[in-house]
Design a protein that fits this description.
By secondary structure, the chain is an all-alpha fold. It is 76% helix and 0% strand. The mean pLDDT is 89.
Amino acid sequence: MNTQGAILFLVNFIIDLYIFLILTRFVLQAVRADFYNPVSQFVVKATNPALLPLRRIIPGYGGIDVAALVVALLLVLVKVVLYAAMAGGAMELSAPALLLYGVREIASLLLNYIFWAVLLRVILSWVSPDPYNPVNQIVGQITEPVMAPARKLLPPMGGLDLSPILVLLAVQFIQILFRL
């Protein structure tokens, strides 16, 4: 019986889910999405316990929710420390290396977030014809800042919008370029 592995899986899942919610809140604020959307309301209520106390110490800067990035970074670092502890402390954990790893991981998660959001938008455009669905609206608001410049470079051809392909290729290129 692998009790340690099962517990690590559950803790990892919970931390990853909360990191996803924190990054969703960061992205929703960055794109200035509709605050009254039910999806936005859920994300805000789920992340307020971690972010509100931290916002008193760390204010936003230029429309960027720095507190959300700090919480996401701290959660990534907690995961690394948990893995190191489960491995018997065999890993050397220096503060600069941990910080660099955390920043790279947050950048990678944000790029993956954009990739999957664009892919979800494409799939929703095929199966969900209701443009007033709250999920459709939020996904559209999240992806529009990266889709609009791609649409300028590659306008719709014959009623077919190929800009998602350009965005997906760009995200993959950046991930490969920086090995994220």
